[in-house]
């Protein structure tokens, strides 16, 4: 039955084709090994496929059938991107040791993502989603082909026996075992999971958990009032998980409503729900999330520029949260607050949402366990696709998905512009399938028509900025002043660390002491991207290439190779004895950047080797026509105290021999063209592009 899925299987749409590469059969026909090259059409975002430069991926699968031992071993590994992603899968069909009428199935897999164009987390999500769906589909496929065989009159396969000569020699010591009847796969035999074990039984299936005795049932009025409709099985799962927590968990036991969210998120699989609930409870205790509403006050920057807030409730009684994402300066908030404060604020919003659900449950007299979110995208542009900002957003989504499952009842996305599909392509793989089903997206003014906003929100509370009559107190957002930006060192002084990594690094640049970053490139045509802000002073940005690696910076107090200051690090890599043109070369024209400017850009490397990004102190040139300094020169010199500059920077390499796209594929890393920026200039060359936002 398994062999019938080749060369292609209509039940697996992603399985496009397969070719036999090698085949081996032993003389006694006990061993049969087939190696195939399989072509797959992976369900991945179009943008990711474009950046990777491939439409299909290829796997090599080796099937080893041992009729003597009655086993079938299946091994598979990826051929495409094998230098970046390593996937190994192993499946095994065996006879159960205690009952030969049972066929055991075991499956395991490993995934190791070394690098993937900056989309490592996205690829991991896609791979896990694909793998889980394949496990669910496996039982259905094998049943399909078993039924097909039965319709053709094949109800069993004769047991392999050795050739006549071998049989005569071994007949005195071996008794033939009875032939197994046809395999029948019961519905209840499937178990989902990354390490998957199944027992396929012809006579009986493993017993299902009982729905619970009358002694462990919940009060019917309590269920109706606070939990909603539950089947006896779901009620039993809730009771068992709560009892387990009371017996084993040291700390605050969550309410039934919260436990129920984790059970629903895992389709009432009690083992899976227990695992993610325990992880969440540990996380909450570690970061004191239970006390965040009482002990943490949002910074004034958030209160002024975070364009989101609670606004009444929808027609189902769910609390309504309004987010004017298009009016928000995402980059400015990350620069001024850092990822920690931004994440903490989002967590406080979720904690407030849980509190409001409890209140509305009491007010409306029925269980309300989730809220509705209304997102207005009016004003969304390429600035919101700024690469570090998108990364911070994805990480926030991951934390929320893991710790607040089943809290989003409905998401209304209004006035989606043309750039929205690009953002959705990047974000959607990180969102659970059940959550995505709750999304309703309206372009332009479609939300005003039939099936629009009025179906979900009463006319009296539609916000004024959407054409309603209700005044909405949500801040209007706007551009965060750059005077509020802080360095990475300043942002590290947070009392609670929810993440262990930061996107940005800060550096000090002195007169005669530039700051340099080394990037090693193995594959030509890789892409180096950068994004930095000049916080203080004027600098010159350079990119150099060298075939040999510079010496690591010395950290002695006399040699000025490595300096640590309160405002950031200073590292010098280019040795003073090196000569430009002999030991290293300049691959881009110098770019002068003024104080307060933001610069984003990229460079497609021509050669492998070592690339050095350099931020150098910019000395104002003397006036050629007079010995008197200009007024601008005097003002500039007053601004740059002690000949010191400060920059905050972020770099990333999209390196790949598989990269076949053009620079337009990297639009999401540019934040220069923005309706929020006062002015924008750009400079581009044949192998690079840079943007400056003033």
Automatic annotation (TrEMBL):
Location, primary (coarse class): cytoplasm
Record's GO cellular component terms: cytosol; Golgi apparatus
Keyword Transferase: no
PRELI/MSF1 domain location: 1-154
Entries under Pfam families matching the protein: CRAL_TRIO (PF00650), CRAL_TRIO_N (PF03765), PRELI (PF04707)
Domain CRAL-TRIO: start-end pairs: 298-474
InterPro entries reported in the protein's UniProt record: CRAL-TRIO_dom, CRAL-TRIO_dom_sf, CRAL/TRIO_N_dom, CRAL/TRIO_N_dom_sf, GOLD_dom, GOLD_dom_sf, PRELI/MSF1_dom, SEC14/CRAL-TRIO_domain
Keywords assigned: Cytoplasm, Golgi apparatus, Immunity, Innate immunity, Phosphoprotein, Signal transduction inhibitor
Subunit structure, interactors included: Interacts with RIGI (via tandem CARD domain); the interaction is direct. Interacts (via GOLD domain) with SLC18A3; the interaction is direct. Interacts with SLC5A7 (via GOLD domain); the interaction is direct.
Protein name: SEC14-like protein 1
UniProt organism field: Haliaeetus albicilla (White-tailed sea-eagle)
